[in-house]
Design goal:
The chain is α+β, with helices and mostly antiparallel strands. It has helices spanning 3-16, 18-55, 85-94, 128-132, 145-148, 159-165, 209-217, 235-254, 265-287, 289-308, 310-318, 323-360, 368-394, 398-403, and strands at residues 60-65, 67-70, 73-78, 100-113, 116-125, 137-140, 154-157, 176-179, 182-190, 195-196, 199-200, 204-208, 224-228, 260-264. It folds into 2 domains: 3-52 and 273-403, no CATH class; 80-258, no CATH class. It has 14 helices and 14 strands.
C-alpha cells in the first residue's frame, strides 16, 4: 500500500468519527495556540521594552554612586556623596569619546501656582540634560549652558505639570511657580514625551544644577552624572575612559578604591531583553504542557481505535499485509490528527495573540520560529504518542484478531 493510500485511509477514519477526532485534537489545538500566543506576547514585550529604553537614548551613560567599603567591610548603604560637579568637568576634559555631560540632582517636591498645586520630580542639571534625554520645547526655550551652571531661579516644565498648574497653556511661559516655597520663573514647556515603563516623562521640572543642589537641597554632591556620545559605537570606549579616570583620579584623592557604577543604556536593553527572553521560554514551556496532555489523549484514542478495529487488522494481516504497513497506517493516522490540530492551533494562536495585544496594550509579534516550533512539536507528539498503539496493532495475532468480537 502506497503512502498516499495510507494518508487517505487516515482521513477516512478521522472523518468517520469527527466528534471524537475533534475532542482528541483539542489538547493539541490548545497547546499549539498557547505556545504561539505566549511567545508572541513575550516577543512583543521584549520589543516594547527595547523601544521604551530607546526613547531615552541608546548613547546614554549613567554614572551613579556604588556601595561603600569601610575597613574591608561592604556597607549596604550607597556612598551617595562620592560624585561631585567637578567630576563631570573632569570627564568632559579627559574622555574624548564623551560629547555631552551633566551632573544631576533630583527631588520629589510640591509645586504651587496660586491655588493649584501638584507633586512632581524636580531635576537640577546642565543644558546637556535635554540633549542626552532627547527633550525639546513646545513653548518658550531651554536654558543655556551658562544658566545651567548658575544659581538662577528659572525652570523648564513638562506638559503634565503645565496642564495641572495652568488653565491657559499659552500663558505659561514667564509665570512664577514655587518649588518648595522658592519662586522659579518658567522659561519653557517641554514637548510631550508620554509614559515610559508606566512613568510619566512629562511630569518633570528641570532647573539649573546649582540652584537645585544648593538652594533647594543644600547638598554638595550630585546624585548621578549623565553622559552621552555622538554615536552608539563610541559608548563602550567612553565607558572605559570614564572608568579609568575614576579609578586613577578618585583613588588618588580618597586613598581608597572609589565606589561607583557605570551603566550604559545598551546594557540595560540587553539585561531587559535577557529577562524577557527567559520569561518567554518559561511561558512557552508552561503552555507546552497542553501539548503533552494532547499527546496522551491521542495515544488513548488510538488504543481505543486499535481495539475497535481488531477484526479489520486481523483481516489485513490474514490476506498478507506486512506488519510495517499496519504500523504505518495507525502511525500516519496519529500524525494526521496531530498536524490538523496543529494547523487549527496556529490559527487559534494568532487570535489569542491579537486578543492579548488589545487587552494588555502590548503589540504581540507572532514569529515564523514560534509557528515552526509549535507545529514541529505537534508532529513530534503525533509520532511519539502514536507509535505505541501502532506497534500494538502491528503485533496482533491474525487468528486471534479474526476471532475478536
Amino acid at each position: 500500500m502506497k503512502t498516499i493510500d495510507l494518508i487517505k485511509s487516515a482521513f477516512r477514519s478521522i472523518n468517520r468519527n469527527r466528534t471524537r477526532s475533534l475532542l482528541t485534537m483539542l489538547g493539541i489545538i490548545i497547546g499549539v495556540g498557547s505556545v504561539i500566543a505566549m511567545m508572541a506576547i513575550g516577543r512583543g514585550s521584549e520589543d516594547s521594552i527595547k523601544s521604551e529604553l530607546g526613547k531615552l537614548g541608546t548613547n546614554m551613560i549613567i554614572i551613579s554612586p556604588g556601595p561603600d567599603n569601610r575597613g574591608g567591610v561592604r556597607i549596604d548603604e550607597a556612598n551617595i556623596d562620592i560624585l561631585k560637579e567637578k567630576d563631570a568637568a573632569a570627564i568632559i576634559d579627559n574622555c574624548p569619546s564623551v560629547k555631552y555631560i551633566t551632573p544631576v540632582v533630583q527631588s520629589r517636591t510640591q509645586v504651587v501656582n496660586g491655588s493649584s498645586n501638584t507633586r512632581t520630580t524636580v531635576v537640577g542639571a546642565y543644558r546637556d540634560y535635554f540633549i542626552i534625554n532627547n527633550y525639546n520645547t513646545m513653548r518658550g526655550q531651554l536654558f543655556d549652558e551658562t544658566t545651567g551652571r548658575s544659581l538662577q531661579k528659572v525652570c523648564v516644565i513638562g506638559k503634565t505639570v503645565a496642564d495641572e498648574l495652568f488653565e491657559n497653556q499659552d500663558e505659561v511661559v514667564g509665570k512664577i511657580i514655587r518649588l518648595d516655597k522658592i519662586p522659579f520663573r518658567i522659561i519653557g514647556v517641554l514637548e510631550e514625551k508620554g509614559r515610559t515603563f508606566g512613568v510619566d516623562r512629562d511630569k518633570i521640572i528641570v532647573a539649573p544644577f546649582q540652584t537645585i543642589q544648593k538652594r533647594m537641597l543644600g547638598v554638595t554632591y550630585a546624585h548621578q552624572i549623565l553622559a552621552s556620545t555622538d554615536s552608539e559605537d563610541q559608548v563602550e570606549s567612553a565607558k572605559n575612559e570614564i572608568s579609568n579616570l575614576f579609578v586613577n583620579e578618585l583613588k588618588k584623592e580618597s586613598g581608597g578604591e572609589p565606589q561607583f557604577n557605570i551603566q550604559t543604556q545598551k546594557e540595560l536593553m540587553e539585561i531587559m531583553g535577557s529577562i524577557t527572553g527567559v520569561l518567554t521560554l518559561l511561558l512557552a514551556a508552561i503552555a507546552s504542557i497542553s501539548l503533552l496532555v494532547g499527546g496522551i489523549g491521542i495515544m488513548n484514542i488510538m488504543l481505543v481505535s486499535v481495539t475497535e478495529r481488531t477484526k479489520e487488522i486481523g483481516l489485513r494481516l490474514a490476506v498478507g499485509a506486512p506488519a510495517r504497513i499496519i504500523l504505518l497506517q495507525f502511525l500516519i493516522e496519529s500524525i494526521v490528527l496531530s498536524l490538523i490540530g496543529g494547523l487549527i492551533g496556529v490559527v487559534l494562536g494568532y487570535v489569542m495573540a491579537e486578543i492579548a495585544s488589545d487587552s494588555l496594550g502590548i503589540k504581540s509579534i507572532v514569529t515564523l520560529n514560534s509557528i515552526i516550533l509549535a507545529f514541529g512539536f505537534s508532529f513530534f507528539v503525533g509520532v511519539v504518542f502514536g507509535f505505541f498503539p501502532a506497534r500494538k496493532a502491528a503485533r496482533l495475532n491474525p487468528i486471534q484478531a479474526l476471532r475478536h468480537e
